[in-house]
Design brief:
Helices cover 34% and strands 32% of the residues. The chain is α+β, with helices and mostly antiparallel strands and 343 residues long. Strands 1, 2, 3, 4, 5, 6, 7, 8, 9, 10, 11, 12 and 13 form a 13-stranded mixed sheet that branches. Strands 15-18-17 form a 3-stranded mixed sheet, with helices on one face. The protein has a two-stranded antiparallel ribbon with strand order 14-16. α1 packs across α5. This is FecR family protein.
Length: 343
């Protein structure tokens, strides 16, 4: 990803109202680095404020198609006309093209991100911060237990033939049975469909996999992939089974497991079995709300086997340090891990 592409994404998130504090700091640093950056940002802001994205799906896709067509037309024009570098006309054209591309990024983000401002209109959204757990009781009586750093959206007293929620993160569902109205959990590239059962879903952005683990009843686990996610694979899962989508290999596997281990987080239990240190830091962040930094990339794949139950983070880290080839230090809400003897 080029630096400008990254900046465009930060600007898009900022205009959409879905930018993190860390991302906002990166954007502010870019803005403060030059007057040209601030002028470009203001141009983009004016374009975004004048860009009224319609609400209906038909209109949204029509607007996005027009934006993409405009970009393609401008790219063809660029190929046909040779312009001297740094020419004022070329600069204005380039700035105009950046505005169009940025608006396209914003439109695409709003249309395809389930938790964008546009796609959460009319929904209840619950955010469970890292270091906490949260319990929800939906209008149909279904219960949702959310792990740290997770969010869910749903409609209260929704009409229709289905009960639909969307999850980003990890949650345990205990679904009230209604054979006339299936319960569906929408994920990034998958969905889970049930009538009434209990199961755990782990689907964090950035993780290498999406997992569904069944405790009671029967679950349909569907994987959508390929061009525009039109290809669909399905499997049925019962207690003692887990479905796993591996993003790296695009595999879709059914495993026989001890499902109790998949819901151990609900009792603040941690179970690591040859688990890479990078994955361990993710789980610790979600449970304790403390951010982690590794000073050496080789530490990411350090394998660790250990179990903990209701331990304080300080105790967990002391034991892991004694068992493994690393040292650490903690300053406020940041825990830095380095090689043995580094701290």
């Amino acid at each position: 990803m080029t630096e400008m592409t990254k900046i465009n994404q930060l600007i898009a998130k900022h205009f959409a109202g879905d930018i993190s504090n860390e991302e906002m700091s990166q954007l502010k640093e870019w803005l403060d680095s030059s007057e040209d950056n601030r002028l470009l940002f203001n141009d983009l802001k004016q374009s975004w404020e004048s860009f009224n994205l319609p609400a209906s799906s038909e209109d949204k896709f029509r607007v996005l198609s027009k934006v993409k067509a405009r970009i393609k037309t401008d790219e063809i024009k660029e190929d046909k006309v040779v312009r001297p570098l740094f020419n004022k006309v070329w600069y204005k054209y380039a700035a105009s093209l950046i505005v169009i591309v940025s608006v396209s990024i914003l439109a695409w983000y709003q249309l395809n991100e389930p938790f964008s401002v546009l796609n959460t209109l009319g929904y209840e959204v619950n955010q469970c911060e890292a270091g906490t757990h949260e319990k929800l009781i939906l209008s149909d009586g279904s219960q949702v237990f959310m792990n740290g750093d997770s969010r869910i959206k749903y409609k209260m007293n929704a009409e229709g033939s289905e009960r639909i929620v969307y999850l980003e993160g990890e949650a345990f569902f205990d679904v009230a049975r209604d054979e006339k109205k299936p319960f569906i959990i929408g994920l990034d590239d998958a969905e889970v469909k049930v009538l009434g059962t209990s199961f755990n879903i782990k689907a964090y952005p950035g993780d290498h996999s999406v997992e569904t683990s069944v405790v009671t009843g029967k679950v349909a686990f569907n994987h959508m992939h390929g061009f525009l996610k039109k290809n669909k694979e399905s499997m049925f899962l019962v207690p003692g089974q887990k479905g796993v989508i591996n993003h790296s290999s695009d595999s879709f596997d059914q495993l026989s497991v001890n499902n109790e281990l998949d819901i151990a987080w609900m009792q603040k239990k941690l179970n690591f079995k040859n688990t890479p240190l990078l994955e361990i830091t993710k789980q610790l962040y979600r449970m304790y709300g403390v951010k982690f930094k590794l000073t050496d990339g080789s530490l990411e794949d350090l394998k660790i086997t250990a179990s903990f139950e209701n331990e304080k983070l300080e105790e967990v880290m002391k034991i892991l340090e004694m068992m493994s080839e690393f040292s650490y230090k903690q300053e406020n809400n940041l825990l830095t891990i380095g090689k043995k003897g580094e701290f």
